[in-house]
Structures are given as C-alpha cells and as structure tokens.
Records
---
Amino acid sequence: MIGSLLSIFIFPGFLFLMVFGLSAEFIDRKLYARLQNRVGPPWFQPVADLIKLFSKEDIIPEEANPAMFKAMPILALTATITSFFYIPTWRNEALYHFNGDLIIVLYLLTLPALSYFLGGWYSTSLFSKIGAVRTLTQLFAYEVPLLMSILAPALLADTWSLTEMAVFYSAHPWYWLFNILGFFVALITLLGKLEKVPFDIPEAETEIVAGTFTEYSGRLLGLFRLSMDIELIVGASLLAAVYMPFGLAISPIFAFILFLIKVLSIVAMVSVLRTVFARLRIDQMVNFCWRYLAPFSFLQILIILALKGFLVR
Amino acid sequence: MIRPAKMIRQVLSSLFKKPATNLYPFNKFEMPDKFRGKIVFDPELCVGCKLCMKDCPAGAINIKKVGEKKFEAEFDLGKCVYCAQCTETCFKKALKFTGEFELASLDREKLKITFNAKPDDTASK
Amino acid sequence: MTKEEDVQNELVKKFDFLKDKVKIQRSRRIFADVAAQDLRSVLDHMIKNMGFSFLCTITGLDEGSVFGVVYHLSTKDGMILNLKIRIPKDKPTLETITEYFPSAEAYERELMDLFGMQVEGLPKGSRYPLPDDWPAGEFPLRKGWKSKTSKQEGGI
Amino acid sequence: MHKFTVPIGPQHPALKEPESFNVLLSGERIMKFSARLGYNHRGIEKACEERTYIQNVYLTERVCGICSHAHSSCFVQAVEEIAGLEIPRRANYIRTLVGELERIHSHLLWLGVAGHEVGFDTLLMYAWRDREIVMDILAKLTGNRVNYGINTIGGVRRDINTDQIKDVSKAVKKLKERTEYYVRVAKEEVTLIKRLSGVGVLLPKDVLKLGAVGPTARASGIERDTRKDDPYGAYGELDFRVITDDHNDVYGRTLVRLGELLESYKMISQILENIPEGPITVKAPRKIPAGEAVSRYEAPRGENVHYVKSNGTDKPERVKIRAPTLANIQTVAKMLEDRNLADLPIVIAAIDPCFSCTDRLTLVKDVGHGKGRKMRWEDLHSHSIQWYKARGIDFSDLNKKMEKLLK
C-alpha cells in the first residue's frame, strides 16, 4: 500500500510530474524565445507564475455554478496524472497495466478538453462560451486522426495494452520504423490537444480575450495551467512510448535518461512547430484535419495491415 | 510556390545567433550623442526675458527673479516633453539639453527641480 | 489655361451667383463662397460632372455672429475645392450630404457635438466624438467656451 | 442559431487603443457591427486655438505616436502657405527623408501587429527587431525615437552631416534585404496566406463611396497617393511608383504595405544622393498674417488633411485635423458583413487604425461645479451613488454589503 501511495504521490506520480511539467514548460518557452531571437524567461519563471497564481484570490462569477466552476480544474489535473501511470516510460512495463489500457489512456487524455469546455460553459461569460464551443469543435476535429494513428502500432503488436506493445517492439527491434508516418500525424494532433499555436483557437487571446479561461483566476487558473503543462509531458511520453519503443531493456539509469531525452525532443519539436505557424481559423482547422490528417492516418493503418501479412510473428 | 513553415530556416538559424534583446536594467544601452534628454539651466547667463516660458509647449518652465540681475528657474520634469525648443529660443544660450533620460520617480514633487542662482552678494556683480 | 482656371470658369458659367466668389489660392487649391440654399445644386453639379468624387472633410468655424461650414472636396488628381457656407447662429440647421458621401456622417456628427449645429436627415447612430454623459448645452469649439482643466492637469 | 451581442473594447487585447465595437453574432458569423469612438479624445483642436504657432508644432506632433512627423509636417506646411514662406530645398529634402523613415517604422510596426493578430508571433518578434534599425537611425538624426521634433515653421531644426548619410544608407541596405525576406514569407507561408486572403473584402466601388484612403484604398486597385497627386516637400523631384494591388482584401493590403516599404528605400537613396546644399531654415514671423490654407500629407495610414485659419495674431483661429483612420473606419463595417469573429481583429488591424489621431477633443472633469477639483476615490464612490440614487437606482445597500465584506 505504502509503495503504491509513494509511487502515486512522489515518484512517477504528482510531484515528479509537476517538476517535470514545469521544467518542460520552461524549456518550451526558452526555446520558443531563442527561436525568435529573444533572451527568454529565467529558469524559475514557470514556478514563479504558479506561486503568483496560487497566492492570488480566485473570483467566481455570480451567475456561474460554483461547484462545477471549482471542480473542472481538479478534474483536468487528475485525468492527466492518472493517465501517466499506464504509459510505459523507462521500463518495459508501466506502473499498472492490463489489456485495454491504451483506450483508458486515450480516454483520460480527452477528459481535460472536456473539462475546459465545461469550465468555459459554466463560467457563463460571453467570451468563455465562445471559447468552450471552439474547444469542442476542435476536439472532434483532431480526435479521430489521433486515435487512428495510435491504433496502427497497436495493430502491428496485436494488443490493446501499451506495455505489451513495448514488449513486442523491444522483441522486434526495427519494426517501429513502419510507424513514422503515424508519428507525424500524432505530433500534429498533439498540437491540437495541447492547444499550441496553429490550433490554439479556443484560447485565441486576440479574438476572445482568453477563451475558456477568461473568468478563471488565482488557484483555479493555476491548476488549469499546471494540468496543461503535465498534459504536455503525458502527451509527449505517450508518443515516445508508442513510436520510439527502443532502448528499454538497458540499465534503469540509462533508460531513464533516454526517456528524458525522448520526451524533451518531442517538446522541442512542439515548440519549433509552434514558432513557424500562424493560428488557423476554426473552420480551416477542421477541414485541415479531415482533409489531410485523417486520410494519412488511414494510410498508416493500411500500411500496417499490408505488412502484417509478411512479417514473421 | 507555397510551402508550409517558410520561416523554419531563419528561425533555426537564430538559435545560434546572439539574442537581439538585452536585459535593460543589467546592461544599459547608450543613446546617440545628440539625444534630447533632461534640460539644464545656467543662472549666470539668464537675463529674465521669459521667452522660453512663452515658447514652452507644456508650460514646464518658470523663471523667477530672485535679485537684481539674478534669476532662478523652476523646472517641472513631469510636464516637460523634451522638445528642446527652449534651448533654441533662448538667445543667451542659458538652457542646454543633456542626454539623460532615466528620470522616472514615484513622486511628482521630486520631478520639480529648481536651478537657483549662486548665493554670492549682489554688490560684486 | 491651367486646370484651376477651367474649374473656375465652368463654375462661374454654370452658376452666375458665383460671379466673383471663386478664387484660386495656389495650384490645386480653390476657395469658393456659396449661399447656404445653393449648396446642394453646386455640390450636385460638382460631383456629377466635374469629377469631385472625394470628400476630404467638413470643417466647422465659429465666426462670432455666424457659423461657417467648409466642405473640402477633391478630385482624383489632387485638386481641392473648398465650398464655404454661412448659417446664422440662432437657427444653425444644415442638410446632410450622406446620400452623396456616406463617410460625411462622422464629420457632420462632429459639427453637431462640437458646435451645436443641427444636421437633418442623419441616419440613427451613436454620437461622435464626445462621451454620452457629456453635459448638454456645452459646445467646446465655440469661441466663448473655456476648458476647465486646471493648470496642474496640463492646461495652459 | 441563438444571437448574442459581443462587446469588444474599449479595453481588449486585440485593440491597441480604446475604441469600442458592438458585434451582433449568430454562432461565429458577424451579423451587425457598430463602432463607438471618442474614447481617446484630448481636445487638440481646441488646445491649438489656445497656443502659439511654435507650441502648436509640438502639439500636432502628439496627435499620434506613429505618424507624429506626418501631422506636424502637414500643420507646418499649412502655416508656411498662409505666411507665404518659401522654405529652402535642403529643408524640404530633410523633411521628406524623416517622413519616409517614419513610413518605414510605421509599416514594420504594422507588419508585426498583423502577425500578432493572426497568432503568428514570430513575425511580430522579427519585424519589430528589424524596426529597431530604423528607430536608431531616427534617434541619431533627430535626437528622439518617436516624437522627432525636426519640423519648425520655415524649415527643419537639425542638419544632416556626411557620416549620418553613410549610416542611413547602410541601414537602408540592411532593411531592404530584410523586407525582401518578409515579402517572400508573405507570399509563401501557407498559414499566413490562409488567414489573410479572402478576409475583409472591399470592392473598388465601395472605396470611392465610403472614402477609404491610403493602403486600404490602394489594395483595392484605386490609385490615390497624395505624394503623386498633390506633391509636397521634395516628392516633386523624386521618381517612385504608386503601389496598387487588386486582391481587395487584407492580403492585398499586406502586399501594398510591403511594396511601399521597398519604394521608400528607393526614395531614401535618391534623397541621400542628391540632397542640395544650403540653409535649413528661413526666419519665420511670430505673428502669421490672416488667411486660411488646406494642406495634405500622405501619412503611412493614408491621407492627412489639415485646415488652418489664422487671424493675424500669434495663435491660430481654427485648426481642423482629419486623420486617415476616420475615413477608413467607415469601411470596416462594410468589410465585416457576415465574416466570422476570428477575422475581426485582423480586419480592424488591416486598416492600421490609429485612434489617437481620430479623437482630438477635450475631456472635461466636473463641469457642473464650475471649477475643476480632484476627486478622491471615496468622493467618486459616494458621488456615483448619489448620482444613481437621483435616477432611482439605489446602490446604498451595496455599501452595507461592502462593509460586511471588509470587516
């Protein structure tokens, strides 16, 4: 009991994720600034922002439903943290695994988007309502390509569990190269899930103030910010686990460092993509996802199905 | 031809360049030599014609007579717009502008500075 | 015969009451005084067949006993004709010219707010440029009106 | 679809200056758009009547931050025309040089703001980094980065020496290469083109009817440029092309502004090559004889019109300032008909609005009490309660709730 409590709260759990999330946010912002030829924030900036937000008073709008208003940030945070336990990070098998935990992880990763929508809708302000509706429309646009592109490696490994996929791919070393196309589709849809620039339409500050987070302030906004940082880490480690399953059998220390490198390289890719694109409109984003991302992920599945015939089990 | 992420080469190359921004309070940026900053007044040269008061767009300067042929300028940096028109209007060249521009202060009264005349006795003048 | 003289002759030929009212100040600048009631006919002629297709702005003047209103119209090649009319201060009414130039609405609202002139025929819209809680009866650009901002707040 | 009105402004991240728009939305579609201006009203026209001509030169400079030289040159030209002053050719050249440098600084600023409005912050950072080159040149030439104060009645206040000319030509070479890069980005960056083309459409016939000026009109194919039609300063002796475009939308305006940047670099190198020798100012009388004049200036946003009437004293009788944004704002309502909300910031930013130019009159405090007095927070608080109570809305129980809260 103590071991699992320890692992939930301390090591691969809340504390580790918070530290890792904040440092990933720092790396993201510093790289984003350096790409724009700016100096960028000091290392303690994300922590300072969090402390500032937590020390501020959080105001709840009068017509908003206080229960739901307060519950949404917590829901977003818990969903992202629990999904981290099912992802095999530096050992061949995750903390908890059973057949079907791939679906659980993907479901838990859509819960934050749902909580942004409910949080925005229940704060009854004009801007957050428009932002909430945009979050949902964006959710439907990027969810199908993401699911398809993660399904492809699972099909190759014939399992629904992330851990068995990791075992399968470490047994057949070069198979993960077939999923490269799925990796790029997943990377772009990850931008949509994390609401980074090409798809940060729900939080477009020049159009609708702060979108779903307009009415949030103080601790609740701090929780939302924290859940977004951790979601960045969880998304990146999901992609790392599914698409880069190499080097897991070596000694724990090297495996851990390799895991850090993989996640930080994905975070670096996200911030480079964030720098070079302008924000799309919601209708452009939806037809981009359906016209380009979805067909590519179907193509990826076709490749996998064709390959399954030849590859020896 | 149209292709996505056009600025990618420029953006990646600036990773290796020195950032264009500098941390202002820590390393200061020097202004060009003839930059119009704070105005200074030399009581010796002033003859009290008050032309500068007439020409100042912001009404920031106030010349007071403190003795025979001795004048004192009361200057409100809070209202001055640093156009240096007074330095040109004054044909006695008693007003000059310096390059100093870091004049922010929390209290409006501290911005009112007075250049008072030398307290030597008037007999010697 | 420069372009300015062509415009001058055509105006004088078309409207004899403009006999000696049109004067050329310099190249591309013509000033003309018109009586208030003839304004529309002169405007109509200038827009339709003299190429004055662009309204630069409308200026209001407080000339002691009378209000002056100057319409600045310009052609494609840069010539400006300034039509000046005078309306009595006790009955300062004007007709709108938004059917020729929709953009005139903002300039005419300025006349109403700042001088107290009455422009008839203006479409419904918010007032410009003064705020809604501006005390009625205060017209800042009239000569007699003094602003109350004290010296400390930057008044002269 | 449920319709609701979205108030945008007066304080809104997309708007750099206070102006308020009420947008009637159904879903994402904009059905009706109404603008309410006048928040940035400072009473410059009335203030001009209370100040001498010399003071007015600096007052008209503060009509707007980014086109300060435009307004002060326009005013000074009108006064010189009334007083019949013939300013030396070298002063004309220096005035045009600073005017073109200001156009470069204003267009680069606009390029960054447009990038920010469509969420392309990298373009903002790079455009504003390159803008520093031209700001430093202006600080070296005129002694200040924004309000240059180079104009005076009868000429200019500072001369330009040879090594300053070398600095300017070196800077212009660097800026030319950077602008060509931005033209390539504007023509090839997919997401930027997607966000800019087809947005804020303004047909040529609407331009004339609604009276649009400057790049907004030129992007719809109307060739109106005051520097060509009504040449002032040294523009008569410079050869340059009026950039027009037939996209009729925000993308066209971007290309027109970038094209004008390239034209400005050509003009500046011409000015630097054949700037004539000679004095830079002519003695101007303090009292200007009675008369009136209309002067026009092609500001970065469009055509400035100044009407000055003098009555022989040293204070003008009437100064009328018509800024380009006042003419362009009428077209925004037309451009936004049934577009969607996401386009609103970029369409408003596309006419490069400068609302401090547009509103220019006095905001008076406390006229009812005769003399202006400072109101502390408590007086304002109690005053507002009396004011509302007089109108039948009683906020006083609000006080009790506040006290309970504060205890």
---
Amino acid sequence: MNEETDATTGVVEMTYREAMRTALADALASDERVFIMGEDVADYGGTYAVTKGLYEEFGRDRVRNTPLSESGFVGAGIGAALGGMRPIVEIMTVNFSLLALDQLVNTAATLLHMSGGQFNVPLVVRMTTGAGRQLAAQHSHSLEGWYAHVPGLNVVAPATPHDARWMLPAALADPNPVIIFEHSGLYNESGPVDLGAGPANLDRADVRRRGDDVTIVASAGMVAKALRAAEDLAAGANPIAAEVVDLRSLRPLDIDTLAESVQRTHRAVVVDEGWRTGGLNAELAASITERCFWTLDAPVARVAGREVPIPYAKHLEDAAIPQVDDITEAAARLVAETGGPT
Amino acid sequence: MNEETDATTGVVEMTYREAMRTALADALASDERVFIMGEDVADYGGTYAVTKGLYEEFGRDRVRNTPLSESGFVGAGIGAALGGMRPIVEIMTVNFSLLALDQLVNTAATLLHMSGGQFNVPLVVRMTTGAGRQLAAQHSHSLEGWYAHVPGLNVVAPATPHDARWMLPAALADPNPVIIFEHSGLYNESGPVDLGAGPANLDRADVRRRGDDVTIVASAGMVAKALRAAEDLAAGANPIAAEVVDLRSLRPLDIDTLAESVQRTHRAVVVDEGWRTGGLNAELAASITERCFWTLDAPVARVAGREVPIPYAKHLEDAAIPQVDDITEAAARLVAETGGPT
Amino acid sequence: MNTDPLAEIGDEYCRRLLQDMIRIRVFEERCAELYGQQKIRGFLHLYIGEEAIATGVMNLLEPHDAVLATYREHGHALLRGVSASSIMAEMFGRATGCSGGRGGSMHLFDETTRFFGGNAIVGGHLPLAVGLGLADQMLGRRGQVTVCFFGEGAVAEGEFHEALNLAALWHVPVLFVCENNRYAMGTSLRSSESQLDLALKAASYAIPAWSVDGMDVVEVTRATQRALASVRAGGGPMFVEFQTYRFRAHSMFDPDLYRSRDEVEEWKQRDPIATFSARLVAADVVGEDEIESMWEFARDETEEAVEVADAAPLEPIDTLEDHVLASEEVGS
Amino acid sequence: MNTDPLAEIGDEYCRRLLQDMIRIRVFEERCAELYGQQKIRGFLHLYIGEEAIATGVMNLLEPHDAVLATYREHGHALLRGVSASSIMAEMFGRATGCSGGRGGSMHLFDETTRFFGGNAIVGGHLPLAVGLGLADQMLGRRGQVTVCFFGEGAVAEGEFHEALNLAALWHVPVLFVCENNRYAMGTSLRSSESQLDLALKAASYAIPAWSVDGMDVVEVTRATQRALASVRAGGGPMFVEFQTYRFRAHSMFDPDLYRSRDEVEEWKQRDPIATFSARLVAADVVGEDEIESMWEFARDETEEAVEVADAAPLEPIDTLEDHVLASEEVGS
Ligand SMILES: Cc1ncc(C[n+]2csc(CCOP(=O)(O)OP(=O)(O)O)c2C)c(N)n1
Ligand SMILES: Cc1ncc(C[n+]2csc(CCOP(=O)(O)OP(=O)(O)O)c2C)c(N)n1
Ligand SMILES: [Mg+2]
Ligand SMILES: [Mg+2]
C-alpha cells in the first residue's frame, strides 16, 4: 500500500475506472487548455467507459471524437501542445499505437532536442495495455517496454486507483510528453484513493508489501498478481517473506528503490507481462545485477510472457502470460536454491 | 573471421555494398518469384546505391519503385508473399520503418499463429540502421532491438561482406519473415567473400577474434569497433586478450556461443549502438548473467548509446554513440578490477 | 435496363441467396446466445442486418479467388465454404476450429478456400489485398481476383489511402468492398469523414467506384457482377460502397448509446432477409413453406455446429509455442 | 482579371520579392560550396529553382502565424526572419545555430518567429499543422494561420490523408502548400500517384484547392493572398499546389540519374529569378544596376553569415544530454 492511502481523511474506495474518470473531469474543469481526443471518447463514452459522461459535461470540442487515424490525431495532439493547449490523447489500445509510433518517437520525443531546447511538447497520451481477455494476437500486446526505451518520453503505469487518480495531473503539469499505460484488466478493480493527496510523483517506484527474503518487481497488471504470490509465499509450509515493488514509472526507472530492496533480500524476481526476450524485464534484471552483483545470492529470476503471439483460447492465453503460480514458484525456487528463508 | 573465409578458392575481396548487390542479383536471377520493392530502388539505384543497375537488368516489375507509403508497400509485400511471391522489401532506413511497424508486428509476425499454422509469410525486409553520419535525431535510430523482441520474426544483422552476400539467400529460403539490418556505415567497407560458400546460417553468433581475458559482444556496425578495441587492448602496456563475438542473428539470440565464451573469460562487455535503457544490450547482459552468474568475475559491462536523440554536430554525435575507446576502456577497467589478465 | 432483375438472376439463384442470408442470420443469432452463456469469449462482432452484402458478393467468387475480411466476418467465412462447425469450434477455442482455436471470432482463416481472415487492425488488411493481387498479376494468374471487405471507418486510416493508390498505380486485380454501415463503433460517418461521398474518394485514385444499396441482395449481386467482370478482364481495381446498417451493437461490449432507437427501427424495416423473402413470395419464386424450411435448414446447420464444437477437444497446452515459426512452407 | 498584376502588387513589393529570391539563391549556392569543403555535413537539400514559392508565401505571413516546412527549408527559415548567420552556424554545428547545432540543415527551428522546423519524416509534420491550427481555433486566436509546406512525394503517405481529413473535419485555419517539384528523390509523380491531379485529391476531403505556376512569384503571391484571406476569415483549411522544379539533385548524395539533362535545361529556362528580373526590367520597375546590387547585398549577407558561423563556438560536450527533457515550459 502506498503511504498516502494510510491517511484516513478523504480516503474513499473507488474503481480504477472511476479514479481515472475523476482525474480527467478534474483536469478539464481546472484548466481550459486541457482537452481529450481519441476514438469514441464522446457519445460512446470510451471503449472502456473511462470518459463516460464527460462530453455531456464539457462538450464535443473538449471531449473530441476522432476518426480512425491514430497517426493523424496523435500528431495533431503534438501540434496542439506546441500551440499552447494541454491535449490528453487517448489511443484506444497499445496495439493501435504502433500506427502512431513514428509521431511519438520521431517527433514528440525529439523536438525539444532537435530545436536546441526551443520547443517542448506538453502532451499526455493515455492507452490501455495488456492481455488476459481472450482478444488474441492483434489485441493483446504489452509493449510499454518499447516506450520506456525512448529518451524524451516519460512513461508511467498506474497500478492502483490512487495512482490512476493522481498521476494524470502530474503528467499534465509536466512540460514533456508523458505516456500513461492503463492495464485493461484493472478498470474494475477498486482500492483506496486519497482525494486530497494531490499530484503523485512520476519517477519513483513504491514498495507495496514489505519482506526480507526476496524482492518481486512488477508493474501495471502484474502488481496485483505479485501481491497475491507474496501472500501465497507467506502462507506456505515454510513461509517466505516477499517484498513487492510496484515500478509505477517505467521511464525513468527508479533503480535506487529496487537496489535498496535487493541489498536487503539478496534475491530478485522481475515480472513482465510482455515477451521475455528484450522486454523491460531484461533491463530490470541487468540494472539490478549491475547494482547488486556482489550481494545477489543468485541471478535475477525473470517471469515473463512466453515467446508467442497471444492465442485466443483461454487455456492457451493463460499459459502465455505470467500467472500468480508462476511468480510464486519462481520466488520459492530462488529462495530454496539459495539457502531458504532467513 | 568466420570459417568460410579461410577457404582460399573463390574468395574475393569486395565491399559490403557489392556483396549485397551480388546477393540481390543472384536471387533475382535464380528465382522468378523473387522481386524487390521499395522507395527509389529502380532508376535511382537505391538510396545507398545497393540496387544500382538491377532494374536495367531485371526490369521495373521485379525492381519496383514504390511511392512514399511505408505501411502500404510493406503490407503489400506480406500479401505478395502470401500469394506465392518471394518479395524483398527495402525500407530505406529503420527510422521510417516505424510507419510500417504495425504491418510487421501485428500481421507478418502473427498470421501463422493466428491462423493455426495455415499461413506463413515468406517475406524478406531489408533496411539500413544506425548513426554516425550527422543525420540528426530523425535519421539515426538503432532500433533493431525492438524487432528482436517480436516472436514470429527472424532478425539478422550482417556485419561482414561475406554475411551480406550469404544471409540473403538463407533469408529467402526461410518460410518466415526475416528482417535484415544493414548498418549504413558498412557499405563502403570491404572484406573477403567466399563466392562458393552458399547460404549462411541465420541463428548463430560467430567468434571474430579469439581471446581469454574478456568477451566483447557486438553486432552490425559495432563489430568493427569492437575488433579495433581488441587490437588496442592487445597492444596496451599490459596486454589484454579480448574475444570478440559477432551476434549476426538478433533473433534468435545464440546465447550458447556467448555463454561458452564467457565461461572461459569470466568477463563480458556488451556493445550496443542503441540507447542503453531497454536496448538489446540489456537482454544480452541478462541472459549472459543467467547462464554464467557463478563464473562471472564482475557484472556484465554495458557500452551503449547515450540517452539522447542523436544530435547533428559531429562532436556531439560522436559522444552520443559508442566509440572504440569507450569499448577499450570498459574492457580494460573490467579486467583491471577483477585481478588483471590471466 | 428495365428487364426484371429477379428473372435475370434466375429463381434457383434467388433461392440460394435467400438461403445463405438466412444461414448467416441464424448462425449469428445463436452466437449471441452462446456469448451470453460465455461459451464464446473475447470480442464478438455480429453482421446481423448486413447479410445481403457478403451473400451477394461471396456467391459470385471462384475457388481460386482470395478473400480478406474484417473481424465482422462469420458470414463471409461461412459462405466461402468454411464449415459452420469449424467456425463455431474456433469461437469455442477448440483445436478443430478453423484457426486451431488460436484466432477466435476475429481471426477466422481457411487455407483451402484462400480465406485470409479475419483481420482486426482496421485498415491493416487493405495493403495485403494489394499484395495478393500483385502476386496474381506477376504470376500471370489471369482472371483471378482478390476481394477485400472493410468498414467505412477504415476509410479514415492512412492505410486505406496508401493501399488504394498502390492498387491503382499497379493496376492489380482487387475488388475493394466497403461495407458502409454508417458507424465505426459509436462514430458516425459524419464525424469521421469531411467528405461523405466515399465513391468520390476512390475516384481521387482514378479507381472506378460506385455506391449501391447494400440492403438489397439483388442490387449487391448486379453491382458485384459488373465490378468482377471488369476486374477479371484486367480492368484494374474497383471500389464498391454498399450502404447498409448493423442491427446490433458494435460488439457485445457496446452499450449502443450513440444512435436513436428510431433510426435502428427505420433500418430494420429494410431487413434484407424480410424484404427479399416478401419479394420472392410476391413473385412466386418461393412459397412461405419453402422459406420456413430454409430457416429450418439453417437452424439444423447451426445446432449441429454447436454440438460438434461442444464435443471438440482443446489444443494441448504443450503446443502453445507451435505456429510461431514455420519449419517449411505451409498454406498459400 | 485584366489589371496588370505587377501594378497590383506594387513596385516596392516586387523589388522585395526579387531581392528575397536572390537572397535564397546566393545563400544556397554558397551552402553547396561549403558542403564540398565539408564545413556542412550530413544531408543538404537545396531549394534552388523553387525560390518563388517560399518567397511568395512567406512575405504574406504575419508574426503570429506558424510555419512548418520540410528538410528543404533554408529559404523558408531565412525569409521567416531567422538570421542567415544562425542558419549557417546551425549547418556548421555550432552552439549559436538556430537549433544549437543539434538539428543541422534538416532541422532549423526558431521559437521567436514560430518556425516549427525543419521536419525530416516525409508527411510527418502535416498532422502537427492540424494541431497548431486546432490550438488557434480553440484558444480563439482569430485570423492566425498555420502554413505547412510539403513536397508532392508526401501526398502518397497515409499521414497526408489523415491530416487533410482532420483539418477539413475540424475546419482548422491551416494553409497546406504543396511544393510539387515533380520528383520525390528519383521517383516521378507518375510513378508515385495513380491520379496526377493533386488538387483533386484535396477536393476529395472537401478542401478548396487549386494548382498554380510556382515558377512565377507573382502568381504565387496572388494565389496565396486569396488562400490566406479565406483561411484568416475562418473559411477553414486550404490547399495550394505550386508547380515547380528543383534545378539541383535531391541532396548532395544524389547522382541525379533519373531525369534527362534536357528536361532540367527546359525548366532552367523558367528560372524564377531570371524571368522575374527580366520582367521587372522590361516594366521599368528596376534597373540592371539595381538588380546587381541586390546580388551584392545577398552575397554580403551570406559572406557575413559564413564568417560569423566560422567564428562561432561549439556546444561543450558535457551539454550532450541537455534538452532531452524540459525542466519547465520553453518556447511555443
Ligand atoms: C487501427 C485500429 N484502431 C482502432 C481499432 C478499434 N476498433 C475496432 S472496430 C472499430 C470500428 C471500425 O468501424 P468500421 O471500419 O466502420 O467497421 P464496422 O465495425 O462498422 O463493420 C474500431 C475503432 C482497431 N481495431 N484498429
Ligand atoms: C517517411 C519517410 N520516408 C522516406 C524518407 C526519405 N526521403 C527523404 S526526402 C524524400 C523525397 C521526398 O520528396 P518530396 O516530398 O516530393 O519533397 P522534395 O524532396 O521533392 O522537396 C524521401 C523519400 C523520409 N525522409 N521519410
Ligand atoms: Mg462501420
Ligand atoms: Mg518533390
């Protein structure tokens, strides 16, 4: 749990979807330069019903439907940002963001540098990510790691309703492009949100559960699975105390927090819903190893997606992406192979 | 040097560009299903003059100019492959391939799986990659690592004229999509090509120089720099014997060959022209560590691009990408910190 | 021309068209139920209301032709000759499904009938159609056509523009079939196109194009006959826009808040099956009882498909990583 | 109309147009030399032959307007008021360059004049223009225009299609200026477009469009006046195609094998500077001597720019990672 939620005053339970919608409504109400654009964000209410009701309240100009033109409206978002607006561009899913990748990588991320510091791009892009809903190979990518590779972008992945509520205002206050990844499996999850907390930081990881035997690093949709794995590990025959770290920010990566934890636990498991080879999990394993090589009892264990386009059939999809048991087993094996829990 | 080139008969010296052109001409001559398409591959002769003279010999249909429509003609290449042709699609540079990434990731790489094994895509895509020519932020990407992340694709990076000559026929014989990355800095480099060697493997790394003190892993444009660094290391005050491994294949990664080498040297330096965070270098560091954790004398050292869009000015661009001295220093430091050369 | 269109087409053929529309309708009504029972998962996009288009077009294709469709393709696959049971099994995620259970509703594929999906990136399959046509052209397979179905929403995508330009530039034998059901999810054509005349867009690529009533299977047939004749004769690509409407929501997730009930009801008055049935009865081509048996036939086909699919095995989990890379040529 | 166009424009303005075309010509001729001497590196794309377009258009813009151009933009930047010395310094990779030496020839930027590059992904800046226009519209900055220059090669890109549709759909104040020099590198319009009438394409988005002689600075001026008046008055986006030709190769790397010497020579007969000079002399608007002093002025401006750039410092290497992320608002 992140500390803000320990405060009692003004802490309410709400779903991730409600938290994000509250953040959007608040942003539209408090800054007239802010507007939302994307496919079906208006009457339809957003594919995941996140923008539901907003166009009735703020009108079609500020909650603006776009045609199916991902590259076009993301580029228009960059232009609007350059022109003094604060666009929040919704790309329906990361899968379709490939059509707009040129705009984000070749323009949004490069303009400030290419212009010698003259033009910054205060753009916020939201998109859903992840698998798990039997949508098959073209609708189930987890490509956050690609965006996290690009200098000039900030990339965050709120894993809790609280972060869903408070990362957006921070992103809007940032003078640079910020990409917000929302795991589609999280929208119906509820949790505490401190309504008075104010903008959250966009660059620090957060320890969601304390433990001294092994560090489990996860983000977005994998955080909940990691926490459940930690519970199983604690409830096991010989209990293992797992520490669970929620990355929150994918770029920059908060290696300090990870290193501090691993220095204590001497063991690390990184969890990544995306494909294993060349995924964010590889960067995490590499940086943790650089910082903790001498204190690690074993190589960092990687629990990641299988190297296959995500299949439709449930039993195959489940087998293709990391499940709670995969995390539990990886952590238990790691601890067992290195002398057991302390 | 890879073994084929030790053979004397039929070994000739040619440039990387000539080698690739020879491979293309040979492919067009030997299989009428093969055709080339891309921007300015015909009269213009290709931006890097690789296809020069081919349309005069094989005609406009088989050496086909395309409009500026990267997504369109890459998709057409996939369709032509499905229809029984063997297209060689040239995307001028990896920078523009972002416009076609959806076709490659969501279609070329997924069709076989989504169709339950019914439709394979025998497509070859060639593109240049890399920086070093003062082309600035939008024309200097090294994004091979992204393609190497995608199941369903094969990704190779010939670093020698010999591989430039013999990887193409292997790619054409492969029933799956193969992406060939040609570093634009290599075209004028010459080296030995065994004209009788035949198709090269697309899945094994190759030890280009033997040494027992440290393993330097590189690919594409970084191989030559790694070899020069190895010479400097050997010529230093207290000589260091560096082994240089050319990855050749970026997907699949030949971890066996890397591990075998590191088991001997106990030290590894991975070199990557791309941005450090989340680059292929991270995957290499992570997999080498997994395989060699107990024999490594120190964490794998990563020499990679600085986290900045590539600037135009020469001194800044040079500082942004790995140079020979960066590799030499990293290797020397690694060896010094771990008891010096054996 | 003032000859009677029905006569021109022939009674037998009219019966077949009606039967095929009914087969799609019944099959999909059942899919909706099965989705409610969670036997079908993921996304499910129904074609109900639009059956005249697939029916009119698919019945005019030859075995060697190639077909590409969107995620709203159950009817297209069915009429292409993919068995109802293998389509149903696919949606049940079974090993015997037409994509081995790996594709689901959005990714029906069939190599033997050259059915290239089942594509779920809007606009993404248009360039593939150009390439398939190019292969036919370069390999000298005269008379062969590639038919590419897509929704009007795809027209806004850059790939539509690139594909049509390439098709015209290279004069490939491709028939572009735009299923204009007026909405892309909740976005009406008016809010997605600055110029509503889609045929005019095709003309800007010098591609012959016209707009046709997609609720009338006879009109669809006549227009498609003309278009196919020209494409097969080497006339280059053609574009036909069929005006239609989907009676159901976009997908089973769609609350359908963006259009009025009245609008939907108005269009339902033009139900392609009801209107064609009435017309055939009026013209004495078929009798009420014969029509009833057509529904009966469709129900039997569908129920058998459900039974077969229900009994079908799942792919063993250890095959998960199969079909990522082919060991040698398959398909195409 | 049969009024004398020169008179309409006025002598003073005519002189200015001629002087500006000459400034671009002289500046770029020098760039070519400096490239030979390796003082300018990377890619260098010359505008020689096309000067009438930038000259005619840029002279009609207001300080609050926004401008986007391609990598062939030295002239546009110069006439926008970016100093010759800061442009030259940029190409020399110096700290005093208009992009701090980080952009080079393809990426000239200037915040004070709202010059948004210098964009090197063909077609990539068109959507940005739509967004800049949208910002003007939403912030109620009436009368402000965003002018977007691009080559005819960009018309084949999907982003052209998406951007024009969005611009028309949203009625944004953007002027699209197509510099049709007939070639995209070595690819002629004929081999890149199935429909050669580019204005007709714009029409398919319901955007008013026409084609104009881009070798005649007076025609460029008159057409742009019309277009700008409409856009500033809230008439929505406009599209103007200027027919022109580049006298030099695409870039300094281009062997220029794809077009005949005759073709190039024919077009050189229509050199916008030579023809306009002759016309002004004939009309007694300027004398030979005055024209000579215009060349003199341009040479001085260019030589001074070279000197200043030559003396300018390099960015310290330790600033490499500056300008990757802004600490607070800058520019725009
Ligand atoms: C590139 C892309 N963007 C967005 C989506 C999400 N999406 C799926 S279907 C659809 C609407 C498409 O409408 P249309 O093309 O008219 O076809 P219809 O569903 O009406 O048959 C959208 C936006 C997608 N699949 N692909
Ligand atoms: C998306 C993309 N594809 C390819 C290129 C390489 N390229 C640079 S300029 C150019 C030709 C563009 O021609 P045109 O748009 O007519 O402009 P011109 O150079 O004639 O002024 C090409 C293909 C690029 N920069 N961007
Ligand atoms: Mg539709
Ligand atoms: Mg041009």
